[in-house]
């Protein structure tokens, strides 16, 4: 345990004197696992979802290079995955998870279904953000002789950055919630603790603490996101 | 051959199975160094025409030549390079909202692969040209409409084009700002020798800066010629309609509009002679003046007047003859004033 963890330990001891250090360590590990799953799945989700969202935008009827076949395929896959409830997806994907991570439980294993669930969602959010970019600006770039790749990287992603960042914040918040659900397959994290102690063992105090911690983490993510997207936006002064 | 040569240009859009002819067999030649106006009512097809010049719209039929190069024969890549020689500005400015003024002007150079340092140097020069040196770090949202259009002009000039296309560039601006932008365009034309093509629905824009003008009506080329010529003797209905400036006139009592009407244009020399007074004295018949105006056409004062002719046919014909003999351009008009 590092210094910070010991300090926090003292802090918690002050409030819940009847808790032993095992519980506190468990909660701290829960926070760590939750953050790991949330951020890990958001980042890997964006590695897949961002390109997919760009492809959807580019191949759509009004895109830079319309291609009905690619668009409809991507559109269909996104809709299929998004229509499966996360809990079911979690179970359906167990063999796939085992293939990739080697086991089907633990935080790292949970990231796999979280990413599969998040990628189509992210693709949709990205597509919507890019759709907001003024077509006039794209036309101006074309008139200057910009290639489609230049338009994507130097115009679309730059002009849509505020909206993209807002989407990123919303996605992170969503995945924080989903990561809590992953407790059912032994994923760990705060949600797992809340279910195991609060629900199965009637330890209401532990459940309340985990819920409060989830609320605090969510607030921090949302406020940081809102603050940052305001800072990078040059449209309003 | 002229710098821009448009031959038999036809553009047909297919909207939900319906075929709409936006442009029908247009032929135009635009000479190097000209300020060429393309005017028409909204929906006439003028924006499609200007977008055909840099091939943002590919024509259904016909050819566009820029400096003898047939644009349809260029590959995508060659076309992109060709477009750097053709700057373009828009009604809504279309600046990059997330980039500051300097980076906006550098943008076409960045696309062309020019080194950043060199691009910035060029951008700063251009800011001087458009008179905005104090705004280089500002973002578009902090600028007024006129300032935004100045930035857009600087951006369009960054890649040293030979041609500048202006698509309704002053339509979103107030009259004073429009004047200052038009003066700037004229100055750019004179100092840099860039051919400027101005798309507009406002006759005042054409008469103020253009040397030549084409009138587009419902996808057809109604009339083309020097601004002087068309202002004096509009031969097409579309031209007369645009000259009468319908959008701003008020309707006088109906009885005045029942008679035959003529539009006369005074040139500078004839403006000194009291032609109308002399005419009334000579024919001993009063005429109604329905409208009188002076306009600045290419820097020269032009008087314009619409008269209701007397009922008697003989006198009406004589009056027309008399005015023509006095060196005025006379045309009969049918539309209401």
Summarize the structure.
The complex is a heterodimer of chains A (237) and B (337). Chain A is mainly α.
Molecular structure report:
The complex is a heterodimer of chains A (237) and B (337). Chain A is an all-alpha fold and 237 residues long. Chain A has 11 helices and no strands. Chain A has one domain: MetI-like fold. Helices cover 81% and strands 0% of the residues of chain A. Chain B is of the alpha/beta class and 337 residues long. Chain B folds into 2 domains: 4-234, P-loop containing nucleotide triphosphate hydrolases (Rossmann fold, 3-Layer(aba) Sandwich), CATH 3.40.50.300; 249-333, 2-Layer Sandwich (Alpha-Beta Plaits). Chain B has helices at residues 46-53, 76-83, 101-111, 116-129, 145-157, 175-192, 203-209, 227-232, 237-243, 254-257, 275-283, 313-325; strands at 4-15, 18-30, 35-39, 61-66, 69-70, 86-90, 163-167, 195-200, 212-217, 220-226, 261-266, 288-297, 300-308, 329-333. In chain B, the strands form 3 sheets. Chain B has a 6-stranded mixed β-sheet, sandwiched between helices. In chain B, a hairpin with a 2-residue loop joins strand 12 and strand 13 (300-308). In chain B, helix 11 (275-283) runs antiparallel to helix 12 (313-325). The chains are: A mainly alpha (237), B alpha/beta (337). Chains A and B meet through helix 7 and helix 8 of A and helix 2, strand 6 and helix 3 of B.
Give a count of the beta strands of chain A, DSSP E runs of length 2 or more. 0
Gyration radius over CA of chain B: 23 Å
Q: What overall geometry of chain A do the principal axes of the alpha carbons give?
A: globular
> Would you give the CATH topology of chain A?
MetI-like fold
Helix content of chain B: 25-40%
Domain unit count of chain B: 2
Total of DSSP H or I helical runs spanning 4+ residues of chain A: 11
Number of helices of chain B: 12
Tell me the count of domains of chain A.
1
């Amino acid at each position: 345990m590092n210094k910070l963890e010991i300090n926090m330990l003292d802090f918690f001891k002050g409030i819940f004197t009847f808790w032993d250090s095992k519980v506190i360590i468990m909660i701290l590990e829960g926070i760590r696992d939750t953050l790991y799953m949330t951020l890990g799945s958001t980042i890997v989700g964006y590695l897949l979802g961002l390109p997919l969202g760009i492809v959807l935008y580019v191949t759509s009827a009004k895109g830079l290079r319309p291609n009905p076949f690619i668009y409809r395929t991507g559109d269909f896959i996104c809709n299929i995955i998004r229509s499966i409830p996360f809990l079911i997806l979690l179970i359906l994907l167990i063999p796939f998870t085992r293939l990739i991570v080697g086991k089907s439980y633990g935080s790292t294993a949970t990231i796999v279904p979280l990413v599969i669930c998040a990628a189509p969602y992210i693709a949709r959010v990205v597509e919507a953000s890019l759709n907001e970019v003024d077509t006039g600006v794209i036309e101006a770039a074309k008139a200057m002789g910009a290639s489609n790749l230049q338009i994507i990287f130097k115009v679309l992603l730059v002009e849509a950055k505020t909206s993209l960042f807002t989407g990123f914040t919303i996605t992170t918040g969503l995945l924080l919630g989903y990561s809590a659900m992953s407790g059912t397959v032994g994923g760990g994290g705060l949600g797992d603790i809340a279910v195991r102690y609060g629900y199965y063992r009637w330890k209401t105090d532990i459940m309340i603490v985990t819920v409060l911690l989830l609320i605090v983490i969510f607030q921090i993510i949302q406020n940081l996101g809102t603050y940052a997207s305001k800072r990078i936006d040059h449209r309003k002064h | 051959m002229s710098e821009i040569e448009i031959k038999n240009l036809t553009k047909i859009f297919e909207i939900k199975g319906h075929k709409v002819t936006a442009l029908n067999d247009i032929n135009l030649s635009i000479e190097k160094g000209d300020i060429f106006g393309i005017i028409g009512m909204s929906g006439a097809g003028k924006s499609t025409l200007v977008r055909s010049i840099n091939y943002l719209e590919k024509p259904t039929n016909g050819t566009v030549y820029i400096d003898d190069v047939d644009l349809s024969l260029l590959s995508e890549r060659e076309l992109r390079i060709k477009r750097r020689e053709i700057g373009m500005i828009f009604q809504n400015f279309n600046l990059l909202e997330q980039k500051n003024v300097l980076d906006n002007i550098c943008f076409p150079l960045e696309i062309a692969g020019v080194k950043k340092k060199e691009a910035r140097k060029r951008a700063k020069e251009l800011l001087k040209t458009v008179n905005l040196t104090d705004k280089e770090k500002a973002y578009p949202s902090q600028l007024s409409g006129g300032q935004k259009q100045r930035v857009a002009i600087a951006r369009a000039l960054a890649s040293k084009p030979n041609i500048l296309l202006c698509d309704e560039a002053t339509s979103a601006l107030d009259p004073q700002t429009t004047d200052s932008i038009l003066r700037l365009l004229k100055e750019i034309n004179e100092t840099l020798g860039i051919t400027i093509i101005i798309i507009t629905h406002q006759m005042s824009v054409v008469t103020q800066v253009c040397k030549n003008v084409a009138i587009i009506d419902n996808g057809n080329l109604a009339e083309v010629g020097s601004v002087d010529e068309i202002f004096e003797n509009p031969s097409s209905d579309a031209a007369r309609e645009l000259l009468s400036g319908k959008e701003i006139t008020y309707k006088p009592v109906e009885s005045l509009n029942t008679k035959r009407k003529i539009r006369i244009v005074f040139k500078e020399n004839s403006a000194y002679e009291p032609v109308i007074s002399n005419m009334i004295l000579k024919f001993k018949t009063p005429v109604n003046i329905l409208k009188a105006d002076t306009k600045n056409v290419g820097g020269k004062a032009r008087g314009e007047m619409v008269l209701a002719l007397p009922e008697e046919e003989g006198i009406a014909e004589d009056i027309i003859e008399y005015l023509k003999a006095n060196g005025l351009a006379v045309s009969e008009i049918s539309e209401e004033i």
